[in-house]
């Protein structure tokens, strides 16, 4: 028995790139991509175009291990590049087109990108970023992605210090060889993607994933969401965002129709849903908010399955979503884990619960997907926390979804990929009695007030219940006496008849929270600062709160009453 | 970039055993198993029972790498053992309970099985097999699986030379520790199963699969068949048959309800379908035949998805199946590939075809599942055949589904796991223009009777033992019920005092072969057709047998009793 081990046939590297060859056979005549009024491809065409593009990349000198960057919203080109770049042997570096030029240049330099595909609307940004390169550092070559669906535009004159490939995106496709043999990875551990974590911290970290991770996550993400054959999938999630949670590759498995769009406003999204009969979409909470705050009176004609991640959707949002015809699933993931890793798998027994109880269940992050080996919530010494819904610990993960590491950052890599074999997420959660976990906070978002850990997320959840509150973020304000106190930044809904006062908000919180959790400071803002992916930038608010300095000392009797 | 490679967290071995822990959390309160009128378990109970059983196996001295055998139809115990045996670290050896004692003893000796779980109705067979062990060879310990749903029975007295564990199956479960930490594989390449491809040969081939194969196939088999969450799955496929095509593990992923049954006659199957609202079932073609030839006037209340393999279903069968409410999918697999590897993925465009055309499309074996790396049809020099639907070649496969090899059989392993990196299936097919393949013939003269592969060479070997037989050749005779039955062409020795009858020859075979391998037709010939070099021309005989047509139909009740 010991003599039997892996052989050439069964150790063929696991890679999502094999999905596309198959899609061309099975779904060859079915629609792969729809975009605007004029662009419609079949899976056979998508397959051919990707091969041609990969072939052209090879001709341009792109080799195994090179980094190729892409700066684009979720257009057809963006979709094709998810396959074409790794099919050329290169590592796909999806970039956030909402970055500023400084951040973009830092990332491009760090990644040592050889070539960058740039959507026409991101050209100026890219040129500015390239202009910030020190003169001794090689700039990536630039390929322009034009877009006929846009209003007529002028291509700006290109500076001399930028090496622009003398061909557009479409030109490279036309020129490429449709019989190109795409470059298979030597090992399934070879890198396939490089993603930079969005800037909630100042120094971006380059997350590297391998072919095996992309393969396993693509499959188990389809199963976890029960995606049927040939869904109609709307790209309300930016593909650059953690590789579209693996669904660009997954759509090739099930032969879905990818509805591409660069606009993510409510009228556009609702129009696309109705026109194309969208069945599935992923969305950051902010996109879900946009949809639900839009004045839509008629419910959807057909159920649309929505998968959302990031912060947990408040009960009010979920109830509104369901009433419109959205079937909302909720998960937890991170770039380091190729998208959704833990999801709130629905239990049949919950069907019988009240709407509020249902929402409470659904707001929990849940359990690992079947393809993830292990997930736990652990205390400081690595011990599993009690399954009591109260004891907090850090979420840790084992499985094929875990990244290879951070590019050129051994220290950060070692911090989360520990010697004990676990990946540490940096997220704080409790484990409920039924084995579902619920995130309480990012570790750095925990506020320690008078020695008590308090979760900013819980305080935020209460603030969101207030009828006048649009958005809320709670951070620590330094305090001479308490160490820290919770400080809430709040934006209010438009067209309010009456503006709530600071006192009213505090009293509202006091009805639902223990006294030590009531924000001691309320700051009203027109708009909260956000990252390009729509996440509230707590580090900005934390800085503001830090500069406020300490509150006046409370009287001692208040202190004792708190404990 | 080169410094980033696999780490402890992401190289946690892929194994289907992690599915069960998760099922206990997500589907804890949902039904996992239904059997007869009295047995109903939840996923939480199944999880606990499997842990307890694995714990007891450990207590009995079962260790990593030991082989543990199971001889049972698809009962709850059989299902539990699919998890419990590998959870103890052992290798699961599912055995065909229709084998004869001689074949069973050969396999048990070859596998070096340490312990065998035996269904009460297979006890006599097992005892006879153990009795055939040479005295110097260690017999496996025996655990009896009792069954309260059967009519009262007497346990036969057990011979002294058999080491019977002093506890029944249920006793071992009761005794086990529900908090047992199941034994994780050291590597995903560690063996998880050992299956014998043909139960009856003097040189049996033991197919060994690893945890990784079982994991990947479980996931991609769910996707390929679009299995939704919480299906109701009827065990019309024997679980011993190529590990139930991975669905025992797959059901834990989606929290399905396993409807177990030991009877596979039409009334029972239809009753189970209606009673439990069955949504999915796998079935050998013979089971499908039984269902469709049964006099059922009313169509099914709900669509039942049927996955069938082996010989391709004729158009008439498919049409009848669809009219009753079965949605038939068709695939190709083999024990060496953990079940279905190639399936006839339905194309939307086919919806518009005529019933006959649809059936023609569906009868093709199809394309690889998304989780399989590569499939091709190749000529003698390894070159891909033309996609013309005419040129034949051998089906070759690469991917995680490919076995580790044959146990203690380097020669047979090397014959199919070639140096060029491909697994050679031994099946001859054409590739159609659209990339779907269709099997034309078998290289090794395998006859598929009732879903069981039987080797004509083995039957011939027995015929040759008969003192009156000069020459023998066995080929497939088409059969409406069984797909094929073995048909023997025999020439007799000269100067015989007494000519044997057809009945005598069959009885002679019956003493040495399991029932399904006994030739159902014996044709006496003065001379068998031969090539100039003296080789029997089987293709000539195959044509003769083909022209005989199907045997007279056995009455359905007789048929079902034989399964």
From TrEMBL, chains A, B:
AMP-binding enzyme C-terminal domain location: 458-535
Keyword Nucleotide-binding found: yes
Does the keyword section mention tRNA-binding? no
Query: Among the entry's GO cellular component annotations, what is one?
Result: cytosol
Family designation: Belongs to the ATP-dependent AMP-binding enzyme family.
Pfam families of this UniProt entry?
Answer: AMP-binding, AMP-binding_C
| Main localization, broad class | cytoplasm
| Protein name stated in the entry | 4-coumarate--CoA ligase
**From the Swiss-Prot or TrEMBL record, what is one GO molecular function term?**
ATP binding
Q: Where in the cell is it found?
A: Cytoplasm, Cytosol
InterPro entries the record matches: AMP-bd_C, AMP-bd_C_sf, AMP-binding_CS, AMP-dep_synth/lig_dom, ANL_N_sf
Q: Which domain of life, per UniProt? A: Eukaryota
UniProt keywords, alphabetically:
ATP-binding, Ligase, Nucleotide-binding
Limits of the AMP-dependent synthetase/ligase domain:
21-407
């Amino acid at each position: 028995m010991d003599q039997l081990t892996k052989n050439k046939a069964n150790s063929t590297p696991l890679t999502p790139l094999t999905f596309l060859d198959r899609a061309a056979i099975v779904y060859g005549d079915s629609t792969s991509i729809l975009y605007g009024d004029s662009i419609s491809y079949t899976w056979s065409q998508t397959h051919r175009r990707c091969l041609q593009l990969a072939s052209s990349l090879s001709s341009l000198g792109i080799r195994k291990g090179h980094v190729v960057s892409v700066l684009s919203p979720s257009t057809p080109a963006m979709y094709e590049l998810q396959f074409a770049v790794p099919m050329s042997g290169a590592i796909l570096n999806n970039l956030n087109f909402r970055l500023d030029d400084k951040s973009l240049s830092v990332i491009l330099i760090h990644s040592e990108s050889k070539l960058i595909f740039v959507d026409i609307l991101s050209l100026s940004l890219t040129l500015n970023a390239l202009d910030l390169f020190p003169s001794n550092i090689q700039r990536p070559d630039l390929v322009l992605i034009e877009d006929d669906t846009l209003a007529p535009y002028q291509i700006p004159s290109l500076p001399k210090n930028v090496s622009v490939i003398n061909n557009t995106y479409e030109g490279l496709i036309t020129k490429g060889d449709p019989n190109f043999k795409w470059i298979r990875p030597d090992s399934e551990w070879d890198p396939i993607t490089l993603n930079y974590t969005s800037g909630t911290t100042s120094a971006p970290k380059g997350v590297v994933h391998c072919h095996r991770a992309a393969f396993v996550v693509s499959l188990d993400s389809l199963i976890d969401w029960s995606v049927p054959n040939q869904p109609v999938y709307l790209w309300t999630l930016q593909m650059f965002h953690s590789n579209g949670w693996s669904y660009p590759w997954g759509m090739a498995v099930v032969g879905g129709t990818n509805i591409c769009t660069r606009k993510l406003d409510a009228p556009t999204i609702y129009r696309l849903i109705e026109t194309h009969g969208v069945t599935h979409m992923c969305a950051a909470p902010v996109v879900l908010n946009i949809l639900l705050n839009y004045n839509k009176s008629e419910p959807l004609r057909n159920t649309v399955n929505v998968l959302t991640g990031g912060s947990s959707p408040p009960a009010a949002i979920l109830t509104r979503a369901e009433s419109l015809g959205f079937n909302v699933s909720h998960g937890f993931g991170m770039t380091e884990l190729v998208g959704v890793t833990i999801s709130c798998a629905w239990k049949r027994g919950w069907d019988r619960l009240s709407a509020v109880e249902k929402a409470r269940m659904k707001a929990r992050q849940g359990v690992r997907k079947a393809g993830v080996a292990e997930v736990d919530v652990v205390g400081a010494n690595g011990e599993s926390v009690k399954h009591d819904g109260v004891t907090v610990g850090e979420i840790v993960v084992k499985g094929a979804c875990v990244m290879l590491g951070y590019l050129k950052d051994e220290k950060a890599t070692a911090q989360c990929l520990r010697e004990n074999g676990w990946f540490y997420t940096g997220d704080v959660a409790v484990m409920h009695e039924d084995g579902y976990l619920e995130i309480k906070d990012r570790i750095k978002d925990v506020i320690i007030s008078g020695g008590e850990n308090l979760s900013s997320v819980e305080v935020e959840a209460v603030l969101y219940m207030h009828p006048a509150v649009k958005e809320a973020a709670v951070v620590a304000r330094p305090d001479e006496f308490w160490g820290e106190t919770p400080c809430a930044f709040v934006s209010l809904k438009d067209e309010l008849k009456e503006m709530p006062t600071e006192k009213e908000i505090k009293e509202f919180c006091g009805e639902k929270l223990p006294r030590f959790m009531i924000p001691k400071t309320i700051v009203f803002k027109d708009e909260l600062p956000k990252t390009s992916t729509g996440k509230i930038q707590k580090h900005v608010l934390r800085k503001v709160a830090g500069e406020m300095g300490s509150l006046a000392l409370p009287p001692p009797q208040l202190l004792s009453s708190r404990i």
